[in-house]
Structures are given as C-alpha cells and as structure tokens.
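Collaborator request, handled under Task 6.
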Amino acid sequence: MTGHREYKIVLLPGLDGTGRLFSPLLSCVDDPSSLLVVRYQDLPADLDQLTEQAEAMIPEGQAVILIAESFSSLVALRLLERGKLQIAGILFFAGFARAPCPLLLNLARFVPATLIKIFSTNPLLVRLFFLTNKMPLSVFDLYLDVVRGLPSEVLKDRIRLLHGAKNLPSIRTDIPFGQLRVRGDLLVSKRSTTDLRTLNPALFIWEVDGTHFFLQTNPEKSLQIIREFCQSATGSTPV
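Structure tokens returned to the collaborator:
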C-alpha cells in the first residue's frame, strides 16, 4: 500500500447479503484478507438494522472505502448519513440511491415469498431476466447455490425494503463517489447516475458492457476499477 493514510476496503453485498458472491473478486486478490466482507443476518430487517450489522463488522477508527454492490447501495448511503464511520469514498457497483426499478418492485410486493424464491432460483428464468448467458457456469452455479440457501421471507423482505426506498437521502457530500454503470442493466436505469450526482456532483463514472452481475462475471476488470477509484479518491491503492 502507498500513500500516507491507511484505509480498509469494505465489500457490502448484494440482495443475498451473504458476501459469497464476492468469491470471484477475492480470487483475483493476492491477499483476500486485506478486504473486509460484510455479511447480513438471514433474518428480515429494516435498513437501519442492516446498517447497524454492517457497522458492527467494521473496526472503529478505521478509514474505509465502501464497495457497495446493488442492494447495499442503500446501506452505504445510510452509513454515510449516520456519520459513525470514517468513510474515504463509496464506489457503487450497479448501484443506486433509491428504488432502481419501481414498477417491477411494485409488482413483486404482491407475489408470495415462495414464488419469488422459485423465480430467483429457476435457471431458465434467471438466464432470461439477468442475461446470465454471459456468466461463466461456475459463477452461475454459485449464484443459484447462494440464493437457494436464503429463506424465502428474507428475499421478500429485502424486495420490500427496495420498494420503500422512494426518496433520495437528504445528505449532500464531497466524499468521493464512484459508479460502475452497466449498459443494458435491466434493473438499474441511467436515472441512478442522476440521483448519485445530486448527492455528489463530482461523481466518477465507469460505463461498461455486461449484466447486473458485472462484478461476478468480470472480476479482473472490477478489481481494476476498484483500484482506479481508490487512487482517485485517496491517492493510494491497497489491493
């Protein structure tokens, strides 16, 4: 690591909350223990409870760069609002500041939890909706294994949480923000960039081709983007 200020990279997981889907990225790092992976409890929880779970895993007094994947964008922003951590920057991977796909989330509210679980783990439906034909088989199998292990009510609850995120956070900040935006992402529209720029006009943007699961399907490129963001935000690259 270079630079005068030490900091820790913290990985905040997507909707599954397990952190297991960071495995492809961690396999590209010489020392995976240099990155802290947050994991949420497999229980229904509101945004503040998830945020508290994340805070409890992050060492006090340690400057951090938050890498927020998809769902955890909301957690990262709430961590910033609470002001208990020394946040040196936030990089949003396929991230957003409020409900990314309101119509779909509104429909999902009326679908029983068991059907959401079936949809989320049916290989054909997953391939069609998430365009996972671009995902290596090993990563696709990992995704299915992770989601199959989640309680149905937890999946339903986190969709409810996303649906409830209708308004932008009130916070405005000059803490560095970065966004990896995937062209053709069926879940996150370009509105997400406008929203994040509202919170911080000096937003670094990386626009790439791929799917919502870019971090899993392109771990080497993802690591390169993380390094570039860290360099821009702090002047040093710890991984």
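The cover message to the collaborator said: "The chain has a mean pLDDT of 88. The chain has eleven helices and six strands. Please let us know whether this matches your experimental observations."
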